[in-house]
């Protein structure tokens, strides 16, 4: 590389104004003629640029790897390497940032210019050089390099922002996983045997957490309460509401269970399901200011008599499967909880016989879709229930999950899904 800092003859010979504001930096001059290099470097210094020069193409390739070099002026004809070959090697070098290359040539044929463009040149200047034309071409190249560097800088900023977002999402994933464990803590044991009754539960969220909850509680001696909840929407907000309502119907803290009334001495009695639904509706409307609501089935089973009384608030119909395999759907609907002020609810009743099974579920099951968009529907769920009615409650849920996944041909569910199976064995002896 030649310093060539003393020769200002050429610069003084051409009184050309400096380059446009903001256009400057390092430019590499590659020419095997020392005189040509000297003239170019003098002009470039006068225009506020920092020239690096070399008469050796191999040395110039090493210099051009420096990211500070934004523009290159390269002679076409040089010993050992042509200008187009230099361009090809420069483009293949993997340098950071773009280098704008101007080829100096006496060639004017279209095929020669096409060769230069194909090799990676950006512009051409014919010899002998005219300083005003050189300045204009450098201005154009410098603007392109400046835009490219600004784009690279923006991409770096975007990359840093995405990295920060990824870190944030990783932290959110940890929190959501903790939320999922907390939500599952509100769910009683997946299977539970009580005198005269076996209970099996299944809860699966479409995301980390969801708005479905199922559960049971002992209302009093010989009285079992069950509930199935589906909060509108998905995600954390729905899960928080679902967990809040499940906590209000928990058997772990009967004194806080809104379906129970304390009689003193740790003794409780079950409140009518319609009264509980009305009370819960008022609480939801009072506490929630958004557009969330929930559907609910809340029932009480007298184990001694098999009498089952329940309220249905916008929830799918419970399925009653008799011991002989016949099926009934229970209830006539009802308004969701937290949607209408002063809503009233009706109590429905059914008599269970030993060997009968009650199935409570959310619409994530009936709205499970096949690849062609066909939904399973209530009839499809009933058919699956008939298929496995001889299995235990826990086996039934496992086979139901397997069949639903095969029906959807997807690893998970589009909506939250949950179910509770109550197998009635008759009065305990």
UniProtKB/TrEMBL annotation:
Q: What does the organism's lineage look like at the top? A: Bacteria, Pseudomonadati, Pseudomonadota, Alphaproteobacteria, Rhodobacterales
In its keyword annotation, does this UniProt entry include Phosphoprotein? yes
* Span of domain Response regulatory: 26-142
Domain of life of the native organism: Bacteria
Gene3D superfamilies for the chain = 3.40.50.2300, PPM-type phosphatase domain
Give the keywords, sorted.
Hydrolase, Phosphoprotein
Concerning InterPro entries, the annotation shows:
Bact_Sigma-Reg, CheY-like_superfamily, PPM-type-like_dom_sf, PPM-type_phosphatase-like_dom, Sig_transdc_resp-reg_receiver
Q: Which Pfam families match?
A: Response_reg (PF00072), SpoIIE (PF07228)
**Residues bearing the modification 4-aspartylphosphate:** 75
Q: Is 4Fe-4S one of the keywords?
A: no
Q: What is this protein called?
A: SpoIIE family protein phosphatase
């Amino acid at each position: 590389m030649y310093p060539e800092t003393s020769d200002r003859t050429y610069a003084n010979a051409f009184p050309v104004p400096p380059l446009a504001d903001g256009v400057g930096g390092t430019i590499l001059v590659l020419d095997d003629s020392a005189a040509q290099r000297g003239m170019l470097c003098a002009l470039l210094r006068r225009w506020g640029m920092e020239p690096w020069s070399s008469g050796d193409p191999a040395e110039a390739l090493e210099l051009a790897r420096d990211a500070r070099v934004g523009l290159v002026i390269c002679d076409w004809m040089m010993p050992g390497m042509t200008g187009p070959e230099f361009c090809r090697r420069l483009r293949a070098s993997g340098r950071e940032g773009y280098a704008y290359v101007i080829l100096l040539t006496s060639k004017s044929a279209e095929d020669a210019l096409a060769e230069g463009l194909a090799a990676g040149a950006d512009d051409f200047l014919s010899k002998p050089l005219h300083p005003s034309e050189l300045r204009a071409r450098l201005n154009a190249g410098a603007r392109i390099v400046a835009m490219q560097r600004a784009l690279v800088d923006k991409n770096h900023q975007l990359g840093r922002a995405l990295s920060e977002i990824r870190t944030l999402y990783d932290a959110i994933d940890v929190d959501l996983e903790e939320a999922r464990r907390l939500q599952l803590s509100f769910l009683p044991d997946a299977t539970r045997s009580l005198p005269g009754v076996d209970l099996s539960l299944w809860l699966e969220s479409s995301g980390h957490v969801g708005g479905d909850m199922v559960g049971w509680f002992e209302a009093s001696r010989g009285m079992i309460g069950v509930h199935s909840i589906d909060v509108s929407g998905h995600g954390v907000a729905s899960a928080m509401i679902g967990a809040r309502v499940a906590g209000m119907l928990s058997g772990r803290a009967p004194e806080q269970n809104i379906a129970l009334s304390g009689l003193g001495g740790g003794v409780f009695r079950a409140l009518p399901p319609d009264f509980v639904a009305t009370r819960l509706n008022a609480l939801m409307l009072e506490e929630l200011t958004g557009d969330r609501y929930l559907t609910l089935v809340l029932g009480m089973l007298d184990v001694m008599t098999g009498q089952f009384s329940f309220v249905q608030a916008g929830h799918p119909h419970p399925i009653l499967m008799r011991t002989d395999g016949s099926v009934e759907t229970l209830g006539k609907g009802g308004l969701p909880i937290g949607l209408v002020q002063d809503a009233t609810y009706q109590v429905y009743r059914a008599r269970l016989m030993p060997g009968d099974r009650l199935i409570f579920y959310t619409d994530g099951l009936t709205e499970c879709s096949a690849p062609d968009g066909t939904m399973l529907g209530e009839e499809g769920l009933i058919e699956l229930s008939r298929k496995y009615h001889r299995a235990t409650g826990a086996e039934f849920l496992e086979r139901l999950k397997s069949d639903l996944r095969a029906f959807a041909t997807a690893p998970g569910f589009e909506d939250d899904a949950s179910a509770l199976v109550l197998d009635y064995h008759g009065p305990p002896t």
